[in-house]
Amino acid sequence: MDRAQLAAEQWQKEWPEINNLPMLTLGRLTELSGRIMQDEIEPLFSQHGLHPGEFDVLATLRRSGAPYALTPTQLYEATMVSSGGMTNRLDRLERSGFVERQKNPNDRRGTLVALTKSGFEKMSELVPIHVANEERILSSLTTAEIEQLNALTAKLLDGLGRVSLGLNGLGK
Predict the structure, then answer these.
(1) pLDDT tens for residues 27-56?
(2) What topology is assigned to 25-161 in CATH?
C-alpha cells in the first residue's frame, strides 16, 4: 500500500463523508513526482556533473536549434525558474564551460546565453541516456497507458491554467 492510499483510508475511517479521491489522486501524483526526481532522475544528472536545473537550461538551449542561443528572459520563461535562480544556474554552467554569455546582436544592452561546443557535446551524450531512463521509469505501463496518462495530465494542466481557484471563499 502506498502512502497516499494509507492516508486516504485513514481519512475515510475518521471522516467518511469527505471525498478522499482528490487527496488520493494528488497525493499519488506528488509522491510520484518526488520519487521520480529524487530516486531516478537526479542521480543520473549527478553522475554527469549536473543538477536538474542545469540540465533543464542546457536542454532548453539544445532544443532551441542553431545557433543554440537564447536571451536570459527566454531561458527564464522556458524553464519556469526565478530570475535569481536562472542567474545562479548560468553562472555555474559558464564556470563549467557549457554555456557562454555573448552580446546580443539585436539588442546593444542585452546578452545571449549560448551553448558551447562542450555543452553541445554534453547534451549529445546525456539526452539519449535521459530518454532511455525515462522509458525505464515508465516501463510498467503499456504504450496505450502512457498515452492515456499523458492525455490526462495535459488535460489537468490545461484546466489549472484556465481555472483560478484561489482561497477566496474556501474555508469560510
Answers:
(1) 999 999 999 999 999 999 999 999 999 999
(2) Arc Repressor Mutant, subunit A (1.10.10)
